[in-house]
Structures are given as structure tokens and as C-alpha cells.
Amino acid sequence: MKDDEIQDTLSHSLPEKVVDRLLNATHLGEIPTPDGYAHVRGGCGDSMEVFLAIADRRIREALFDTLGCGYTIACGSTAMEMAEGKSLSEALRISAEEISQALGGLPASHFHCAELAAEAVRKAVQDYLHRGNEPWKKLYRK
């Protein structure tokens, strides 16, 4: 299949903003020694890892990796974009509803992908806060 055929097939089955995020995903990757880290598995079997670089209680860089469907990739990309530059308290308030809205709305059958992304961001921030008094421990993460 050619790129045009793939994009045409995707556009018939997925919302336009989800297709755009899937084909042009950003914030994919990992930070070798992140300040905040989370690995979350959703009920559907998809999983997402979030890596945060934090300075002055603001998220300077947010990257993710996932084993998931196109909706999960789109939600992860959107959630990382929303988190980057935010204070920790602002990042903790990123919701599945906001992620879904930024993507033009998700079908009910895939809303859990936005929930997975929001939860992964929250857990990565919580990891940072939990380890705040012991920053050396980030070097020993598995």
C-alpha cells in the first residue's frame, strides 16, 4: 500500500485529528534518567511509559513510548504536548476529557486511551514528587 492509500484508509475509520496525530506523532522516545517516570497498562492491554524532565517544578520535556493502537499513540502525543511547559500542579490536572477534546472527540469505545495517557502523566508526576527527597534513586530505576 502506498502512503496515500494508507492515509485514505485511516481517514475513513478514524477522526481527522487522530489520523494527523498518528501519522505525525510527536514526543515519542525516552529520557535515559528521567526525573519522573511511569509505566501504566490499561484494561484493554495497551501500555504507556512516560518520561519527564523537570526543572524548577515545571515539566521541561515530556516523552512517551507505547504498545498500543492508533488512538493510544494519538492520546499519548497529545498528552505530552499538553504537559510540556506546565507546572506540576497543572500537569496533575490534565484530564482524559481535555485530551479527547484536543483530538476532536474520541468514540466511547476508545475513550479509555485518553484515560491511559492522563493516568500515565499523573503517575509520572507523582513519581517525581515521591522521589523528590531522594533524587539519586532515579539512577537505579528498572
Task: Explain what you see.
With 142 residues, the chain is α+β, with helices and mostly antiparallel strands. It has one domain: Sufe protein. Chain: A (Alpha-Beta Complex). It has a three-stranded antiparallel sheet with strand order 1-2-3, with helices on one face. A hairpin with a 5-residue loop joins strand 1 and strand 2. Helix 2 packs across helix 3, helix 3 crosses helix 6 and helix 5 crosses helix 6. The chain is elongated. It starts with a helix and ends in an 11-residue tail after the last helix. 37% of the residues are buried.
- The name of the CATH architecture is Alpha-Beta Complex
The end-to-end span amounts to: 39 Å
Instruction: Indicate the percent of residues in helices.
Output: 40-55%
Question: CATH first level: which class?
Answer: Alpha Beta
H/E element sequence: HHEEEHHHH
- Rg from Cα: 15 Å
What order do the helices and strands come in, and which of them pair?
Blueprint: H1 3-13, H2 16-23, E1 36-41, E2 47-55, E3 58-67, H3 70-83, H4 88-92, H5 96-102, H6 111-131
Helix pairs in contact: 2-3, 3-6, 5-6
